[in-house]
Amino acid sequence: MRGHLTERQLCTLRCISEWIAEHREASSIREIDRQVGLSSPPSVAYHLTRLEAAGAIKRVGLRRFCRSN
User: What kind and span of H or E run contains 65?
Assistant: First the structure.
């Protein structure tokens, strides 16, 4: 799986993992945007959709994502 992810997607995945470890809850799109420094929330959403399709994360509610592995 990780071999098929871009550097930005790996950075996003790392951000999600670190957020969960620190806050004990899944991160939101806005939180990921602030941490990763993407250009906009839709840009974050694009990367999250790709990560979800790759099985790296799963959606928790409407606005939050967490690692599935």
Answer: strand 64-67
CA separation, residue 40 to residues 1, 18, 36 (Å):
25, 20, 10
Residue with tokens 């974050």: 44
Which tens digit of pLDDT belongs to each residue from 19-32? 888 988 888 888 88
Q: Are 16 and 57 in contact (CB under 8 A)?
A: yes
Which pTM value belongs to this model?
0.76
Q: How many CA atoms lie within 13 A of 4 on its CB side?
A: 8
Yes or no: say if 4 and 54 are a contact pair by the CB < 8 Å rule. yes
Residue 45 in tokens: 């959403």
Residue among 30, 26, 24, 33 at smallest CA distance from 57? 26
Token digits for 42? 């839709």
